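Recap from last week: sequence in, structure out.
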Amino acid sequence: MIAIIDSGGANIASVRFALERLGVDAELTADPAVISAAERVILPGVGAAPVAMARLDEAGLVDCIRSLTRPVLGICLGMQLLFERSEEGNTPLLGLIDGTCAALDASGGLTVPHMGWNRLIPQGTAGAHPLLTGVVPGAHVYFVHGYAAPVSENTVAACDYGGPFTALVARGNFMGAQFHPERSGPVGATILQNFINLPAGREG
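Predicted structure tokens:
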């Protein structure tokens, strides 16, 4: 069973529909017991980091998420929440992946938020991660975000928008996509299917 954490994100319905297209039923829940028992967990998110963290805290989900040992996929803001901190409101995040999420730089005349299609650039040995199985280097995916995580040893794929940032990340059983796989056509569907196909006990 896949649990989708009810984080209040506007992308929850589209994530559920994307999973349904893959023939997968998912339960939308804020129940820690259901989330802890799930074989896989998806943490969606759209909006502001301080609001999202407050919602998780009020629902008693912060420690629940931190304790998960099954595959977890954060999407968009949900990916950022896996990191240590966000400059947005100087907000402490879940602390599961090293790094601070910072505002995208608009000083070069780029529009922020970053909205639209951009390329995935696999990174070193991390780029061989199972999430990218069947995804060609340079494949286009769809982004909507104003903050981003730095490129690090945990970066599976980067993207460039006024500078490089992490587009796909993995540390142990915690993974994240800054883009919206549910809105990224066949490439996004492939990445979601790869997540579904991960062994339930995957830790790397």
